[in-house]
Amino acid sequence: MSHPVPVSPEALSELLSELIVGRNETRLRVAIDGADAADPGRLADSLVVPLRAAGFAVARVHANDFLRGASVRFEYGKTDPDSFYDLWLDANGLTREVLTPWGVGGRYLPALWDAVTDRAVRAAYEPVPARGVLLVDGPLLLGRGLPFDLAVHVRLSGGALRRRTSPDEAWTLPAFERYEDEVDPTALADVVIRADDARHPAVLVRGG
Description:
The radius of gyration is 17 Å and the shape is globular. The protein has nine helices and eleven strands. By secondary structure, it is α/β, with parallel strands linked by helices. Strand 5 and strand 6 form a beta hairpin.
């Protein structure tokens, strides 16, 4: 697709699932990138059933379960957008415990850190399936060198992002402006979902 194509939310899930299945890879690591206001987790959840119906084991991992400890995240205050951008995600932990094992086989850790209790999660390592799809949702995932095989970016325009971000999270908005300027996730992603109207998304498949 060279231009965004309007689809229903149901058709979007089917399209993405077919795209993933069509990659003909035994293990695939998929980023569902987007601000919380864009609800990337909901999109990732919608892919579980159709992918399992296609014969894949599916693992859901949330980037928010791989944050650094509070002493690092809040070193410059609890509402510092640059810290949110640069310091919050434990990218090394996510790569070490999830993305690398998923790529080579072995065992992966579905969650590492509980940001609410500020303690390590006592999650058990799980075996990487022989034929599986890993779906990782969260904000600011692209441009970090994380080893994803497919990157989906759920995009909101600046106006939609401001309208749909809750007042207590408005301090994060400069981080997303910086993300647009420095990373340009729309250009970097393999698939871009324009989601200003969640009931009527449009999809652009890069190179399609």
